[in-house]
Model the fold of this input.
Amino acid sequence: MNKKVDFEFSAGGIVIEGKKVLLIKTKNLEGKEVWTFPKGHIEKKEKSEETAIREVEEETGYKCKIQTKLDTVQYWFKDNERLVKKTVKWFLMTPIEKVKEPGWEVLETKWLTFDEAKKILSYNSDKKLLEKILSFTI
Done:
């Protein structure tokens, strides 16, 4: 039985203010609560930078400014019968202002110190991104 392979492209932001980082709590495909960084699918004719800014605002309520491009992360996951290779472009951001409440898919947002964030981030790839940021923000 051949499984269908799909490719998804997303962009997201790691929002830093002072010595704190903004995380979101959401549910993964299995319905488990996870702490992660805001991100979402790149829409047609949208640049990855535009996606990152839009998704961060939708998921956190913060209008943000991109400071620099970070890593591009790739991983595989299963969604029902689909095998998906996901590519995520990450950007380092700073908040401009809080403009609305977080979107419906976000259970909670939280500003945490880097150490607190490292302890509760659910994905190793997110922890590695945070480590990279620490290496050039301290």
Summary: The chain has a mean pLDDT of 92. Residues 4-137 form a domain with the Nucleoside Triphosphate Pyrophosphohydrolase fold (CATH 3.90.79.10). The helical segments are 48-60, 114-120, 124-137.
